[in-house]
Amino acid sequence: MRAAMRGSVVAIACVLVAQSGCFAVEPVGPCVDSTGLFEAGQVCLVPGLDLALPGAPWQLRRAVFDKDGVDDLAVGLASGDGRTVYAATELAGAGKLTQVASPAVIQDFVPSFVYGDPTGVQDLATLIETDDLINGGKLTVHTCGDDVFASGESVSFDLRGKTLSLPCIRPVSLAAVGDGVAADIGWGIACDSMPAPDKSPVEPADIGFFLSPAIDKSGSFEAYGDPRYSSTHAVVAARLNDGAFLDIGFAAVPSSGNSDVIALTYDNDDVARPSESVVMPGQGLISRLYAADLDGDGVEEFVALHRKGDVITISRRTQKDPPTYAPLDQELYAGIFAVPSPLAAAFGDFTGDGEVDIAVAFDNEDGTTSVGVYIRWPDQDPGVFFSSLGALRTYTDGEAVVDLMALTLDDDDKPDLAVALATASGGRLQVFLNRSPSSG
Amino acid sequence: MLLWALAGPVAAQAQTPAESVSAAEGDVQADGQRLFDEASAAYNLGKFADAIAKFEAAYALLKAPSLLYNLGQAHAKAYEIDQDLAHLRQARVLFTNFIKIRESTGEATGDAKERVAEIEAEIAAKEQAAAAVPRPALVAPAPAPAPTPTPTPTRRRPPGALTYAGAGVLVGGLLAGAGLAATGFVSRGRLVDQAAAEGTLVPLSSVRADEYAAHEGQAAAMAYAGIGVGAALVVTGAALLIVDHVRRGKPAAAGKRARFTGAGMAVNF
């Protein structure tokens, strides 16, 4: 009898051990290195390349400058009294910096398929401010061969002479417009304008430039302006409809108002003029404007950083025909996308759950800067953008975040993150490799 | 005092044959007298067993009826010490024989008859008390041809296989039920905590929530199943114990009851 009881107890214990194992839900994967951007069970971005830069960075752009299968970066650096642009390649390895543009007053730059490239290698367009008070900008394209900028070929597009009736005193923002793959048809250019000296004091027609049709090497292009806006200070190419080419959104100050609007120009317009504007509800000047398909519906949303408004706003298409955009309910999302002085944003599914997250950089009240990730909540319907800010990393000791860029540096289909930092000695480019658990 | 009152005749009677017998017979008388004295001394000291033995030895030599009285008295006194009814019954026999012998010779019987009556009353009272107690007891045979019917004393059988099986099932049920329930509830609690921690910053996805819910449900089901199975086993074990307890409490079957008779007494087990 005792033997039977002992056997029963052993059998029950075995069953219990086996059963208890069945009830364990596999924890989401641990982070191999939590010193990067880390949020338990959500975000695991581990430090990768840390590349010293020969100047203070001021902007990053994702690019493809070679055919190694991973993304590269165009890095804007301060250089003496001017600015220059470097190509940062081989970021999955030791990193390589190649100077692309000569020092100048470069206001913006964008990787661009200027001539179309079946290999997918992009050229680099730079927007330069000149001293000309009437026609004060020019566009320069640096072509890229199979080897990174080995050909050294450079084609310049001088805005002067093409803007005689549309004075652009100070070009500030540039976006390449094309099919988003291998051919660009032009650029959107945002200009700060002011009364032309010969027409003072009358406010001139203010402009968002759309260059069309396709550019050839001779540099011919057409430009349009729109008198409804007194200033445009940011531009982004976006996919807003089912057209073949990307569309454009301008952050602009309307002539009859003080709040920023996002002026939209669609690729199927007969005249490439802004045909719609999204009124931003009093959040202040848009310091940076992005476009990203946050909800996966095939139409990109506008994400605007309002540096002085301490908020990030999202505008989404609410009606297809005619296309209508509207910012999200500011009351509903007021506490969600509120970070102090947002500096930059980057977009990607950093958690691996299928939802596009938003990495943000922002100033803190104590003078430091931080990087974090607005982690999208799962299972949200299109148009719902609830998020939680996590995976925070704060930079101190004289380092300050300048820009962020999501990019792919390996073949795991997870977006990695590049952070440009201004340091006391210049700057550095810090790469974080995505090792998030992909919990689903 | 009672002994002395009766011992006198014994002693006198014991001296009478000593004067009229031969030298050999004188030795017997002397031995008998010595044994009588020793028995009397033992009696006075309350050593009734010794007194009984010495009185019996003296009677074997002297054949004096008075010694029967003294023997009866010694047995009666022994009964006062050990409450053994055998002494009382023996005393009754001795007193009765003493009366018969004396009456046959026309001699006085003293208070022997009163003593017999007292003893019989005492024996009857004791037997009645013993009959009321349901436990093994010595039962004296009734003087009548048919023995007086007495309640049959019972004796529990030792725990059987059912008891052990019941205890095993009961303990096993407790262990299994408590183990399964504890494991289930602890597992569910752990899963709840894990899910809460995982969903602190960002709510769980539906897939993940379903995964947790499924495992929590399984854990709870095991806990409740453990409680149910454990309770069933405990009830079963208890039932087995009760059944065996009841069966053990019944009188043993006739074929298995032992009955020993002889020497004027019967013992039932």
**Could you list the spans of chain A in which at least 5 consecutive residues all have pLDDT below 50?**
160-167, 195-206, 212-221
* Residue share in β-strands of chain A: 35-45%
Mean pLDDT of chain A: 79
Element order of chain B: H for helix, E for strand: HHHHHHEHHEE
Give the strand tally of chain B: 3
Placed side by side, the strands forming the largest sheet of chain B appear as 1-3-2
| General form of chain B | rod-shaped
Largest sheet of chain A: 5 strands, antiparallel
Structural class of chain A: mainly beta
**Multimerization status:** heterodimer
> What is the number of beta strands of chain A?
28
Rg of Cα set of chain A: 25 Å
β-strand amount of chain B: under 5%
Query: Which strand order spans the largest sheet of chain A, edge to edge or round the barrel?
Result: 1-2-28-27-26
Low-confidence stretches of chain B: 4-21, 136-144, 253-269
Main β sheet profile of chain B: 3 strands, antiparallel
Structural class of chain B: mainly alpha
Provide mean pLDDT of chain B, rounded.
78
Helix content of chain A: under 10%
What does this structure look like?
The complex is a heterodimer of chains A (440) and B (269). Chain A has 440 residues and is mainly β. In chain A, 5% of the residues lie in helices and 44% in strands. Chain A has one helix and 28 strands. Chain B has eight helices and three strands; from the N terminus they run H-H-H-H-H-H-E-H-H-E-E. Chain B has a three-stranded antiparallel β-sheet with strand order 1-3-2. In chain B, a hairpin with a 2-residue loop joins strand 2 and strand 3. Chain B starts with a helix and ends with a strand. The interface between A and B is medium-sized, with 31 and 33 residues.
